[in-house]
């Protein structure tokens, strides 16, 4: 090796002039800095050179220039070089010249750095150098590679130098052929800027005269700015002549834009056989982004089926499908034997504007894009651009604007494909998790001047849809309209997320005078039409360049006048008994027809209500029903309607809508529950008109709107759920309960799962109850085994886990009527308890629900807190009191289509001893203050993202309470959730109230989870999760990833694949920030495998869509896919992007500080597992980097765990 090094930079103390020297068998593998010729940290070397040398058969590069400027390397031939050949090292090197050199057979080397594994003949880390008249041939990877970092690496690091922003020196008259990868590669970032680091104005970088042939790609630029490729000759490169990946921060379609010009691109020749190299698949592969131009370029021999002059890029891992939508300009193009002009693969992949007619053979200004249903009728077929899917070309008066959006509301639309219709027809846009912008989300192109209406597959029932998006490239007079269906005229309309509001336009919007965001109301069709316009609302000079319009669309009807909640006018509690003066339903002399079409008890001779009558119980009256009544249309209660309590009473109440506006509906009393049989059946489907009772939350249809009082007190059944006393085996038709019950023959029950599969939940009807009131005979045999495991550990802890059993039947029922499309539309009955304004009066509802059965209730997809169409939803009713005494007690919710119970803006609501079975989405959800969740059972929560084979992938929970405040949660059990069991706000570490106790999670995909995106305001910088038991969790019993330190205390983890995994985030390591963050695991019990664990049954569900879609959540396993109790801590400077990315993965540097303390814990029954697996009490995280923060352990108890299965360290990740 030849090393040239000066003790002092820029002194020219060292000179090296190497002329016509042969260097062979040089360089030392595996030795950094041991190169054949190495100029090392000398600064200016303007008097030194390497000229006319021959360098061959080297083991570690050829000529390495490190921290050196103004060197000359010319007329040198290199051959058979391992690793990068002509090599600029740190990125600070400038003014160097490489000219008239020949590099042959530069090949990969695994003996140094990653850059040498994929070597280049010329490897340049700073663009401000001269590279001219060089030839590179026959290497394994690259001819020329421009590889710029944000700042120089190594000893030359300087924050004031930004190689990825430095203007290009000279790249001229170079050639590269027969490379395994690319002739020229610009990777990963290069945004040349006037002024370098501090500059903002793009500076075009002109790469001139490259001859590249027989490579995989002639040239590729990955993530770049205004790069211009001029006078290139690109011949028979396999995948692309030129390919761009992304262009950003550039002038749009000007002389300073990114472009390729004055070039020749040849698809195939007679020199290289088609069987060897084939035809170039894409002459120009357009990048994602705006501003790119193709000028004065000739395409030759693109005439076979798999190649075309134009294609569009794909970026693996970023966006490889359904991306694009950008516009590209083409002019002065020539096509010689090149009939295949473009291959499109999907509907909105890209748009070519033919500025002079040479691409289309039409006049200037025609556009080419894939054919779709929304193209104007005067567009024509374009066969030469239809080598893939059909394409069309459209006359110059038509212009398209890219539109991308996400953050859709309601959230249930996430994952659905959308359709959009204009005056010409309908097109479609697929949902995609990976997008260039607005991911996950949607993208399309919209026609200037057209009016569009959007809808979503299986989502036509949704109105008031909001989104965050961007409309691209609007000149000052460009515009288009969008329409959205709404139930009523909005009080608020905003395009910036509610920061400011825009008043409706009087009359019809005139595009000639309108400004961006103007909107109009169409009362006939109940739609809002708004304009996206190049003319901005701000009063400033119009831009002469195209502008983008960012939208965060928000529109809503205020619940109250001026969107201000009114005071509650009610000051007395509801009456606790029937008054003396009442009306009776079957008295024909009290009914008369009102002017608004209601039959009302105001006195008259209209007779009692008949089938489909609309009935209004008048204000200040009390109506009693003592016999069956007819089916009704609308039942409006402004007074009280009471159903008489009689043991033999049977009432069937059927209606389209029941609206309690200031009145009250009573079936049973708190001290005198209803003893007969009563059902409330609501009719309706997606097409049923909405009922508008006044100013308040949308009631919709098939609903009970409670703006007064709803008292449903069914017969008390005592205990509503318990656990099995003994294991119930497959094929048995008997079960034994752990507690005696008052259930009866004919009642329906649910039995929870005890494996890793939520769908092993089963339901049956009781055919006999033994005299012990614990042994039940069922109407069928068990399809699955439902376990009970009871065992006392040597330290005295008693394991007592088993399948839950819940009662579903009650004598008061709320039912959504069946119809042909019930399951397809998933549209059941609902109860909305809310505040309403009507005729300048305010009505606030309450609902006391006790021992009520809800069947086919909830309306799937309506999940936002402003429109929660759950089985029961409380919205903005204030704090529970004796005046508004709401409560949900001992009810059952089964076979529904949405969340069972929702609490939004209601304080101190008690939700207790309820059974929820088969909810679509969250089982119980609250964001209110002081919600009291007591002894509820939630079984089989079905993930709405994969419901009916959908592809959404968000995270719902059996109990969702992350936004709740002062939550109280005791004795609940979530079993069989397809996603999370509990997503609840942690307590403050200083909170000693014991607000959480004895909450359990059995047989769920995930247990107790806190995500990095979760936000909660605690008094200290420490969160606490305590008193949970998780059993048979498929992935994580408890998963925590957030910025606060964590205390996990008094928890029990049994047979989870991972018991506890914690990730504590921040501060920023790269800023040298430090914080003493901790994870404390205290007084908890970890149990590996009990004797009841079944290796053949306790496995992941096979071919399950939900499990496949939640693959990122899989845990950190031990050898042989064994389970782990406690995972060593992870302290990172930033999130790993869970839940969208692998939950256990590492995507950021480890934090500088961090400590786990484990004290008073018991680890039991860890050892050899199923089929060669090994279960460990404690383990490192296989997804972590090799750095491990310290762990302090004290007073640990080990039970039935041999020494070899206490702690497992994964092997370091050598990659």
TrEMBL record:
Subcellular location: Cell membrane
UniProt GO cellular component terms: plasma membrane
Superkingdom per UniProt: Eukaryota
Keyword Glycoprotein attributed: yes
PROSITE patterns documented for this protein: G8 (PS51484)
Organism: Dreissena polymorpha (Zebra mussel)
Boundaries of every G8 domain copy: 600-726
Keywords for this protein: Cell membrane, Glycoprotein, Membrane, Signal
Protein name as it appears in the record: G8 domain-containing protein
Pfam family, one: CEMIP_beta-hel
Chief localization: membrane
The keyword Cell inner membrane is annotated on this UniProt entry: no
């Amino acid at each position: 090796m030849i090393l040239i090094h000066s003790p002092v930079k820029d002194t020219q103390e060292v000179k090296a002039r190497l002329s016509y020297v042969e260097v062979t068998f040089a360089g030392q593998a595996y030795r950094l800095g041991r190169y054949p010729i190495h100029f090392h940290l000398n600064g200016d070397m303007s008097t030194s050179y390497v000229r006319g040398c021959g360098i061959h058969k080297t083991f570690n590069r050829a000529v390495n220039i490190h921290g050196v400027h103004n060197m000359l390397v010319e007329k040198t031939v290199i051959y058979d070089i391992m690793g990068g050949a002509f090599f600029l090292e740190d990125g600070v090197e400038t003014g160097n010249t490489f000219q008239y050199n020949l590099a042959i057979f530069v090949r990969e080397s695994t003996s140094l750095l990653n850059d040498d594994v994929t070597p280049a003949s010329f490897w340049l880390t700073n663009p401000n150098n001269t590279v001219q008249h060089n030839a590179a041939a026959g290497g394994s990877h690259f001819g020329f590679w421009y590889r710029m970092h944000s700042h120089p690496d190594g000893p030359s690091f300087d924050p004031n130098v930004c190689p990825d922003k430095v203007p290009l020196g000279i790249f001229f008259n170079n050639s590269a052929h027969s490379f395994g990868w690319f002739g020229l590669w610009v990777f990963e970032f290069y945004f040349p800027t006037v002024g370098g680091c501090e500059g903002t104005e793009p500076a075009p970088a002109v790469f001139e005269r490259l001859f590249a042939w027989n490579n995989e790609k002639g040239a590729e630029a990955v993530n770049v700015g205004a790069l211009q490729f001029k006078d290139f000759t690109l011949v028979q490169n396999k995948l692309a002549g030129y390919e761009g990946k992304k262009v950003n921060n550039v002038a749009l379609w000007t002389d300073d834009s990114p472009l390729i010009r004055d070039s020749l691109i040849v698809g195939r020749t007679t020199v290289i056989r088609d069987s060897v190299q084939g035809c170039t698949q894409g002459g120009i592969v357009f990048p994602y982004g705006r501003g790119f131009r193709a000028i004065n370029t000739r395409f030759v021999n693109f005439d076979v089926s798999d190649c075309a002059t134009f294609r569009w890029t794909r970026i693996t891992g970023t966006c490889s499908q359904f991306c694009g939508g950008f516009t590209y300009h083409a002019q002065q193009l020539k096509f010689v034997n090149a009939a295949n002009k473009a291959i499109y693969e999907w509907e909105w992949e890209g748009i070519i504007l033919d500025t002079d007619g040479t691409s289309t053979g039409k006049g200037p200004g025609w556009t080419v894009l894939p054919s779709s249903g929304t193209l104007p009728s005067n567009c024509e077929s374009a066969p030469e651009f239809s080598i893939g899917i059909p394409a069309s070309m459209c006359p110059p008066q038509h212009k398209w604007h890219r539109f991308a959006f996400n953050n859709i509301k309601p959230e249930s639309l996430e994952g659905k494909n959308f359709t959009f219709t204009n005056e010409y027809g309908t097109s479609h846009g697929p949902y995609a998790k990976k997008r260039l912008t607005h991911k996950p989300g949607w993208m399309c192109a919209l026609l200037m001047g057209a009016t569009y209406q959007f809808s979503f597959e299986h989502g036509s029932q949704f109105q008031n849809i909001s989104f965050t998006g961007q409309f691209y490239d609007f000149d000052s007079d460009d515009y288009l309209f969008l329409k959205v269906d709404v139930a009523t005229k909005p009080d608020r309309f905003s395009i910036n997320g509610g920061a400011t509001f825009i008043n409706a336009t009087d009359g019809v919007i005139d595009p000639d005078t309108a400004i961006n965001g103007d909107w109009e109301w169409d009362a006939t069709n109940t739609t809002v039409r708004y304009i996206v316009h190049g003319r901005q609302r701000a009063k400033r000079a119009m831009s002469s360049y195209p502008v983008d319009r960012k939208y965060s669309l928000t529109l809503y009807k205020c619940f109250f006048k001026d969107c201000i909640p009114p005071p509650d006018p009610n000051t007395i509690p509801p009456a606790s008994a029937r008054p003396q003066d009442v009306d009776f339903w079957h008295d024909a002399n009290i009914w008369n027809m009102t002017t608004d079409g209601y039959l009302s008890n105001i006195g008259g001779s209209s007779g009692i209500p008949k089938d489909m009558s609309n009935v209004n119980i008048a204000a200040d009256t009390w109506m009693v029903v003592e016999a069956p009544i007819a089916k009704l249309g609308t039942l409006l209660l402004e007074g009280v309607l009471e159903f008489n309590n009689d043991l033999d009473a049977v009432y069937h109440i059927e209606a389209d809508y029941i609206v309690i506006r200031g009145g009250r509906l009573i079936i049973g009393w708190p001290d005198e529950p209803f003893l007969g049989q009563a059902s409330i059946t609501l009719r309706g489907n997606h097409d049923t008109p909405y009922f508008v009772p006044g100013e308040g939350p949308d009631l919709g249809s098939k609903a009970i709107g409670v703006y007064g009082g709803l008292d449903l007190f069914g017969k008390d059944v005592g205990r509503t759920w318990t656990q099995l006393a003994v294991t119930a085996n497959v094929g048995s038709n008997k079960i034994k309960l752990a507690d005696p019950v008052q259930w009866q023959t004919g009642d329906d029950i649910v039995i929870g799962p005890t494996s890793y599969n939520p769908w092993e939940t089963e339901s049956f009807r009781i055919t006999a109850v033994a005299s012990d009131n614990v042994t039940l005979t069922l109407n069928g045999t068990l399809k699955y085994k439902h376990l009970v495991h009871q065992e006392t550990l040597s330290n005295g802890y008693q394991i007592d886990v088993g399948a839950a059993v819940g009662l579903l039947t009650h004598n008061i029922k709320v039912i959504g009527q069946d119809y042909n499309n019930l399951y397809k539309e998933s549209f059941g009955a609902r109860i909305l308890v809310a505040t309403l304004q009507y005729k300048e009066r305010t009505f606030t509802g309450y609902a006391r629900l006790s021992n009520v059965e809800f069947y086919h209730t909830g309306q799937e997809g309506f999940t936002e807190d402003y429109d929660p169409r759950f089985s029961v939803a409380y919205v903005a009713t204030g704090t529970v009191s004796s005046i508004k005494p709401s409560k949900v007690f001992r009810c059952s919710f089964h076979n529904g289509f949405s969340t069972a119970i929702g609490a939004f803006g209601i304080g101190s609501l008690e939700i207790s001893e309820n059974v929820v079975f088969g909810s679509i989405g969250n089982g119980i959800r609250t964001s209110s203050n002081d919600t009291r969740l007591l002894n509820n059972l939630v079984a089989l929560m079905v993930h709405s993202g994969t419901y009916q084979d959908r592809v959404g992938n968000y995270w719902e929970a059996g109990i969702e309470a992350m936004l709740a405040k002062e939550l109280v949660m005791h004795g609940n059990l979530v079993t069989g959730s397809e996603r999370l069991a509990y997503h609840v706000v942690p307590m403050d570490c200083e909170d000693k109230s014991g607000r959480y106790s004895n909450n359990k999670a059995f047989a769920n995909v995930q247990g107790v989870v806190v995500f990095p995106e979760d936000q909660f305001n605690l008094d200290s910088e420490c969160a606490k999760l305590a008193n949970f038991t998780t059993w048979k969790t498929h992935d994580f019993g408890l998963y925590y990833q957030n910025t606060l330190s964590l205390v996990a205390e008094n928890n029990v983890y049994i047979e989870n694949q991972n018991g506890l995994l914690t990730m504590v985030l921040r501060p920023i390591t790269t800023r040298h920030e430090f914080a003493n963050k901790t994870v404390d695991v205290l007084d908890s019990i970890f149990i590996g495998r009990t004797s009841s664990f079944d290796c053949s049954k306790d496995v992941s569900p096979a071919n399950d869509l939900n499990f496949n879609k939640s693959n990122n959540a899989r845990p950190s396993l031990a050898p042989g896919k064994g389970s782990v109790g406690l995972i060593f801590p992870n302290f990172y400077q930033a999130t790993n992007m869970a839940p969208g990315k692998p939950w256990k993965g590492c995507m950021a540097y480890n934090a500088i500080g961090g400590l786990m303390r484990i004290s008073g814990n018991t680890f039991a029954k860890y050892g050899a597992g199923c089929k060669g697996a090994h279960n460990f009490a404690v383990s490192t995280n296989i997804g972590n980097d090799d750095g491990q923060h310290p762990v302090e352990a004290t007073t640990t108890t080990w039970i039935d765990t041999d020494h070899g299965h206490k702690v497992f360290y994964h092997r370091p990740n050598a990659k």
